[in-house]
Amino acid sequence: MKLTTIIRTVLSVFVSIIFLDSLRFKFTDAPETQEIFGRLDAWAGTLGAPGLFGHSGLFSQYMIGGAELVASACVLIGLLPGLRRFQALGALLGISIMSGAISFHLFTPLGIDPNNDGGGLFMAAVGVWFSCLVLVVWNRRELAALLGDFIAALVRDDRYRS
Asked: Which residues touch 13 (CB under 8 Å, ≥6 apart)?
């Protein structure tokens, strides 16, 4: 087995473990999750967007958890050679999710250690972000092919012709 295959597998499993493990907190209304999303919702309220992080908000724990579940599934399915495009999409979604998480830790009252875990949650977010970045770089051809297929489909669709 090639070293890149081993690293790709390890990164994919790491990303999926972190994302899937977080679901038990997000989908069960765990106190840690309530604290984080409650703090973010209070902050959003001061900016005139109350409810943004609440249970039915655009960035609720359920929406973020759902996106993490999709990203995990795509990253793992993409370990199969014929389905590598899924890994590219999952990694791109993972970067998006973790970019938001890291930004909220750094630039809101949430802070780096909201659960008094020594910053473990923040470090996991950074680790997932970096792992997804590596997977995106390794899968850049698949992403380019996906973009090409999408553009070709738009060109073929009569609704988008001038």
From this structure: 76
- pLDDT digits over 61-104, tens only? 999 999 999 999 999 999 998 999 999 999 999 999 999 999 99
Cβ count near 78 (within 10 Å): 23
Handedness of CA 116, 117, 119, 124 (dihedral sign): negative
E runs forming strands in the chain = none
Give the separation between CA 74 and CA 132, rounded to whole angstroms. 12
Alpha-carbon distance of 77 to 83, in angstroms, equals 7
Rounded CA separation 109/9 (Å): 35
The domain total for the chain is: 1
Fill in the amino acid letter for 148.
Answer: G
Q: Percent of the chain beyond pLDDT 90?
A: 79
pLDDT, tens only, 126-162: 999 999 999 999 999 999 998 898 888 888 876 766 6
Range of the domain at 21: 3-160
